[in-house]
Amino acid sequence: MNKCCCEHTGKALLLHNQAPLIDLHADTFSFKKDTSKFVDGWPKRHLDLPRMLEIGIWAEAFSLFVYPKWAAGEKAGWLSLAEHELDNIHTAIENSGGKMALAVDANEVLSNLDGGAVSAIIEIEGLHALGGDIAKIEKFFERGVRIFTLTWNNSNNWATSCMDDDAETRGLTLAGRDAVAEINRLGGLVDFSHSGERTFWDSIDIIERPPICTHSCCRAIKDSSRNLTDDQIAAIIERGGVIGINFFPGFLSKNKYSKVTAADIADHIEHILELGGEKNVGLGSDFDGISHLPVGIDDCTGIITITEELLARGHDDGTIMGILGRNFLRVF
Question: Domains in the chain and their CATH numbers?
């Protein structure tokens, strides 16, 4: 558990009571195994319901992620696993005693809060799990999925990943354009985290809702293909989208993991602010999907150290409340 011992802790706690604290990405349910401990407490993971309530998280975007090597790489197995993860989220909601509820838009996040419940937002990370079947997009949408991450680190039938050798030249396929059109028709959000640059630029002007990157950082600070260029950030800002800063030390800094702190997260936030993105930056932790967290952030309760850091740097309440979740709530 994180210990808050900063002169700004009191003010940070006050902001957490007022702000729509929303994290844009967690892999807590992205496992083949039993996730029933989430409701009562799951100390081995970064996130569970009791700690969400403790720190004042209004909403968490839970990922449906299927590692490509699972199910021996068989597409039919991928789909089954994604459906199983979705079942687990709905089961957790049912077993929460009214403390967590599904949210498919901003109004539901607010109404859930009024009813005393935190919100579960559902995203599917990497459309390879759908096996190239566009009809499955609507099936998952009907069950509450609202964010569609085009790729993971592997390319698929529809789009090219940032990890692909020709990510700068090969992007959205013709079938991928049809998939994006279907997401548009349904009213879903397209997530460009993990997408290759060509996929990003092929898609950015054909999506109908604001672009989002649920868990990405800035390449100007740390040169990684997983991070966004300034041109990409500018395009997202221009279109009213939102970028959730990833907490993985390897995306945040050139330093050893043991040297990375909340200050590095604040550096990436400030870089987007400097590009004019006061209304376009948020938090996208990647809890339970990354092997390391910054020093001082042991789990989701450590989000408060980021709030403290932003206060220490002199950012005003309105800017910080936007970063904590108001910016994403506008888009969602």
Answer: 9-331 (3.20.20.140)
